[in-house]
């Protein structure tokens, strides 16, 4: 906003580039057509033409605020995979997540109390894996409807004693539509009399061919009840993640997606976000959907206050003006003013769209009555 190119200035004040350059040279400034000059110089020249100019702060800062710069290859660093668990009701999604977290809690920080923030991080041989609590199909439908994609790998839970069921098929379809690789967790293998070949056959009937049968999908037999196979499942997730070569740039302003949000009586609007790129710091100005604010505090999945969080980290944030919606995109920006302006612009656009919708309805009603 403080600078403008010679070309843009000429265009804005309706003069030829050569005329503008002439004035610049008279001032002792030798600028090329695409060179930027500062506002004061631009104002001097414009005044000379008898034209008053103003800084275009609002418009340009909004664009700067959400500008998606390309990450430089040297800034890209490996990031942990983000996993959702999908599958038919009662096949053991919740139990599996609990088993994974418990394995982890006991091995890493005995007695540690995990706080519910809608996602959690586990560590396997020094590598992090992030699990989203949102049931996979919800995560896929509501988030994808908003253009957000947050899952790197889908764990498809299939109960060995029940096989492929309607929601298993749905889960397969969602994952395929989103182009997200699937790892099958064949659960409840502790149960007597299970027929795993039947499950494998049903999976293959629905387009999931496991490695053992010449396909590409990894299947891990597990029991969320006894813990059998959980370690292997985690190792397979890491292996699959490695092949995806997941990377992000910790050096940029944070961007991500809102996983859940609520209005807390004591703490005000609280949102759990998954940071997908960049690093978020306490004090950062942020925008999420139609809410904005400055990060007052960040809390991780272990309930600890943290000062900064990098790519693939789920964090609860405090300091937003309202509770955003799950699936809203999240951006940190340079300053409060920009965050506020972006939200005002979004709200104005929403109002306009609502008005247009109303106008359309009344117009149609009108014609109906004729
Ligand atoms: P969800 O609906 O997919 O989240 O399934 P839940 O985790 O709530 O599990 C449904 C039922 O299956 C519960 O009664 C669990 O105790 C049981 N269950 C889950 N995993 C296992 C397992 O590995 N073995 C056995 N025997 N039961 C399990
Ligand atoms: Mg459940």
UniProtKB/TrEMBL annotation:
Residues that hold GTP according to the record: 87-94, 133-137, 187-190
Location of the region described as G-domain in the Swiss-Prot/TrEMBL record: 81-229
Keyword field: Cytoplasm, GTP-binding, Initiation factor, Nucleotide-binding, Protein biosynthesis
GO molecular function term, any single one: translation initiation factor activity
Location in or out of the cell: Cytoplasm
Signal peptide annotation: none
Biological role: One of the essential components for the initiation of protein synthesis. Protects formylmethionyl-tRNA from spontaneous hydrolysis and promotes its binding to the 30S ribosomal subunits. Also involved in the hydrolysis of GTP during the formation of the 70S ribosomal complex.
Descriptive protein name: Translation initiation factor IF-2
Organism name: Anaerosolibacter carboniphilus
């Amino acid at each position: 906003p403080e600078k403008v190119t010679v070309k843009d200035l000429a265009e804005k004040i309706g003069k030829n580039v050569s005329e503008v350059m002439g004035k610049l040279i008279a001032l002792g400034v030798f600028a090329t057509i695409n060179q930027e000059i500062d506002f004061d110089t631009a104002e001097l020249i414009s005044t000379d033409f008898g034209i008053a100019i103003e800084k275009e702060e609002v418009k340009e800062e909004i664009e700067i605020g959400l500008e998606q710069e390309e990450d430089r290859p040297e800034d890209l660093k490996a990031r942990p995979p983000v996993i959702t668990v999908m599958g038919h009701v009662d096949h053991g999604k919740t139990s599996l997540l609990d088993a994974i977290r418990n394995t982890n809690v006991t091995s890493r920080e005995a007695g540690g109390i995990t706080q519910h923030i809608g996602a959690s991080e586990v560590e396997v041989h020094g590598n992090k894996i992030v699990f989203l609590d949102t049931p996979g199909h919800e995560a896929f439908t509501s988030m994808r409807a908003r253009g957000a994609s947050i899952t790197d790998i889908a764990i498809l839970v299939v109960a060995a004693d029940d096989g492929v069921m309607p929601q298993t098929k749905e889960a397969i379809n969602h994952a395929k539509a989103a182009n997200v690789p699937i790892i099958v967790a064949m659960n409840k293998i502790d149960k007597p009399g299970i027929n795993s070949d039947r499950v494998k056959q049903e999976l293959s009937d629905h387009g999931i061919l496991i490695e053992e049968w010449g396909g590409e999908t990894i299947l891990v037999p597990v029991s969320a009840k006894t813990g059998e196979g959980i370690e292997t499942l985690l190792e397979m997730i890491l292996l699959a993640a490695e092949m995806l070569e997941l990377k992000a740039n910790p050096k940029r302003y944070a961007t991500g997606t809102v996983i859940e949000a609520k209005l807390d009586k004591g703490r005000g609007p609280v949102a759990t976000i998954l940071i997908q790129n960049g690093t978020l710091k306490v004090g950062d100005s942020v925008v999420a959907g139609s809410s904005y604010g400055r990060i007052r505090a960040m809390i991780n999945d272990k309930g600890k206050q943290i000062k900064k969080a990098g790519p693939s980290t789920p964090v609860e944030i405090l300091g937003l003006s309202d509770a955003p919606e799950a699936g809203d995109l999240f951006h940190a920006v340079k300053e409060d003013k920009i965050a506020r302006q972006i939200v005002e612009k979004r709200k104005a656009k929403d109002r306009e769209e609502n008005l247009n919708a109303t106008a359309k309805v009344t117009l149609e009603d009108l014609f109906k009555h004729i």
